[in-house]
Design brief:
2 domains, binds zinc ion, two-stranded antiparallel sheet, binds 5,6-dihydroxy-NADP, 14 helices, alpha/beta, 8 strands, Rossmann fold, 6-stranded parallel β-sheet, 46% helix, Dehydroquinate synthase-like, alpha domain
Length: 384
């Protein structure tokens, strides 16, 4: 196992009715800014629950944070926070609202151009404190340090991570997810699954506990995902799905093991250039990345095939192939197509993506730092 430091300070308030308890988590004299997206929280009653939990408190609002949150929009919130002297941010929504709010939190005290936080990975040491009321299980943003932001003007989707933007608390009430459209549940299953794969499907380092935790999240997603799609108000299925998605990317399963993240890096480009949902890009790219890089991932592919999918017969080649096919079939079965063509996208952006990887110096990616822009091109060529 590799050395690691693990410190996750996010307090989780899990279960029905927990929004009512957020008042106690926010300093009594705080001037609070509630941030949200396009209005789903007003339609499903979450907004009302938040407002009543904060009755009598000093509260302002900033809505309109779009999916794949825009730098341009977030900078308007930064101005508002600075002008109003806001001292606590409460993100109410999915990963985009949580990520957008983390960026706002980091940008407010940042000296210089906040775009540098993303484009130059400028160090973030301070942030406005924030909390999250999560309404979409998928990204793990509610319990991690990451945020992904898009500059609409240049179609660039970039991430940053800083322990300064760990939420102080996150509320995970499965009932808030009952109103999600099927597409977003499907997306959440694929995103969480891929987060596990990015941290698990690499090469063995004798870390059996991390492996088994990862496999148990995958198996739970395989069991609970279809249940929660079939019956959106099955509380238990949704609770199990929600907790799986959080555990998939809160740092625990990735501690002490190599990590990949090439699928995500390529996926972000497909979202930036073609507007595909984040999880749609992962469903397209992951099977191809496993195929192109199967030699380096051989032992873990065999282990994954056996422990997660029960593949124990055939030659090693056949078992590896089946494990990848099972992954693709699972994504398709939960309603997320795995080919670019299914979204009406061709291979025309491959040279652009390749050039962007070069320009950003992303020439040695993956768990073995052997993924250069040529390998990215091979992976994308298989996505048609
Ligand atoms: O904007 P509103 O009206 O709230 O509607 C949203 C949005 O249209 C809707 N929605 C959310 N909760 C709902 C709901 N509709 C009905 N009922 C509810 N309870 O769902 C739509 C999608 O929301 P969004 O927040 O964009 O989805 P998701 O949570 O999948 O977040 C995706 C973003 O997170 C980033 C992605 O790149 C993408 O920008 N990621 C963040 C990560 C992280 N912070 O660690 C890791 C991930 O790999 C990912 O990159
Ligand atoms: Zn993701």
């Amino acid at each position: 196992m590799e050395n690691f430091v693990f410190h996750n300070p996010v307090k989780i308030l899990f279960g029905k009715g927990q929004i009512a308890n957020i008042g106690a988590e926010i300093p009594a004299d705080a001037k609070i800014l509630i941030t949200y997206g396009g209005g789903s929280i007003k339609a499903n009653g979450v907004y009302d629950q938040v407002k009543s939990a904060l009755a009598g408190r000093d509260v302002l609002e900033f809505g309109g944070i779009e999916p794949n949150p825009h730098f341009e929009t977030l900078m308007k919130a930064v101005e508002l926070v600075r002008k109003e002297g806001i001292d606590f941010l409460l993100a109410v929504g999915g990963g985009s609202v949580a990520d957008g709010t983390k960026f706002i939190a980091a940008a407010v005290p940042f000296e210089g151009d906040p775009w540098d936080i993303l484009a130059k990975q400028a160090t973030v040491t301070k942030a406005v404190p924030l909390g999250v009321v999560l309404t979409l299980p998928a990204t793990g943003s509610e319990m991690n340090v990451n945020a992904v932001v898009t500059k609409a003007a240049t179609q660039e989707k970039l991430y940053f991570g800083s322990s300064a933007v760990y939420p102080r608390f996150s509320v995970l009430d499965p009932e808030t997810t009952f109103s999600l459209p099927t597409r977003q549940i499907s997306n959440g299953i694929v995103d969480a699954y891929t987060h596990v794969m990015e941290q698990y499907l690499t090469f063995p380092v004798n870390a059996p506990l991390q492996d088994r935790m990862a496999e148990s999240i995958l198996k739970t997603l395989i069991e609970e995902g279809p249940k929660t799609l079939a019956n959106p108000t099955d509380y238990d299925a949704r609770a199990n799905f929600m907790w799986s998605a959080t555990m998939a990317l809160n740092g625990l399963i990735g501690a002490g093991v190599p990590q990949d993240w090439v699928t995500h890096m390529i996926g972000h480009e497909l979202t930036a250039l073609h507007g595909l949902d984040h999880a749609q890009t992962l469903a397209i790219v992951l099977p191809s990345t496993l195929t192109v890089r199967r030699k380096g991932k051989w032992e873990k592919l065999l282990q994954y095939g056996e422990r997660v999918w029960g593949i124990v017969t055939g030659t090693e080649e056949e078992r590896v192939e089946q494990a990848i096919a099972k992954t693709r079939d699972f994504f398709e079965s939960v309603g997320v197509p795995t080919r670019l063509g299914a979204y009406g996208v061709g291979l025309e952006s491959i040279p652009v993506i390749q050039a962007r990887f070069e320009q950003r110096g992303m020439v040695a990616l993956g768990e073995k730092q052997d993924v250069n822009p040529q390998v990215v091109e091979q992976i994308l060529s298989l996505c048609a």
